[in-house]
Amino acid sequence: CVVACCNENYPDRAAFGLVTKTLQEFHEKYQGKYEASGVCTTDGCLPDPEIERMLKKFQNPAEADQVLKIQKELEDIQTIMMQNMEKVLERGEKLDDLVARTDDLSSTSKTFYKTAKKTNQGCCLLM
Fold first, then answer.
1. Where are the alpha helices (DSSP H) in the chain?
2. Cα angle 27-28-32, degrees, rounded to a multiple of 5
3. Backbone torsion region of residue 4, taken as left when φ is above 0, otherwise alpha when ψ lies between -120 and 50, otherwise beta
4. Residue 26 to residue 35: CA distance in whole angstroms
5. Exposed, middle or buried by CB within 10 Å (0-12, 13-18, 19+), for 49?
6. Quick one: pLDDT at residue 13?
7. Burial track 66-94 (b if 16+ CB lie within 10 A, e otherwise)
8. How far apart are CA 101 and CA 86, in angstroms?
9. CA-CA distances (angstroms) from residue 29 to 24, 51, 66, 107?
10. I want to staple 34 with a disulfide (CB 3.0 to 4.6 A). Which of 8, 26, 30, 67 is the partner?
11. Helix, strand, or coil here: 9?
12. Is the pLDDT of residue 47 over 70?
């Protein structure tokens, strides 16, 4: 029997993964040998460094469970993409402002050209 105690923030999938992996490794290593091994401690526990290693590995669920790791990476990518989309929209607004300024400058320069042309037509060149 394997029991996993963890807080509510620990992912269920990782906890069940730890329990399943622990049971599998225990059965592979000790099936039929547990009672005869004589390695039990006085409290009935079986010391196993492999279980200690797995407990350390499962302290970070994203490292122990590939699905959780991929989910976290996808969430990070989604956040980055949302930020990129916001930046693109901001750039689009800035480009719209720039186009409007360019149109204003163009119309102002046309007005200036027409005014300058009329003014120059009134001037005589005397030699």
1. 12-30, 34-37, 49-57, 61-64, 66-121
2. 60
3. beta
4. 13
5. exposed
6. 80
7. eebeeeeeeeeeeeeeeeeeeeeeeeeee
8. 23
9. 9, 11, 25, 85
10. 30
11. coil
12. no
Contacts of 48 (CB under 8 A, 6+ apart): 26, 29
- Structure pTM? 0.46
Q: What DSSP letter does each residue of 19-42 carry, written as one string?
A: HHHHHHHHHHHHTTTHHHH----T
Is 66 strand, coil or helix?
helix
pLDDT at 105: 93
CA angle 50, 52, 53 (to 5 degrees): 65
18 vs 55: CA distance, rounded Å: 8
For position 107, what pLDDT does the model report?
A: 92
H-helix or E-strand spanning residue 124? none
Tokens of 117: 């042309």
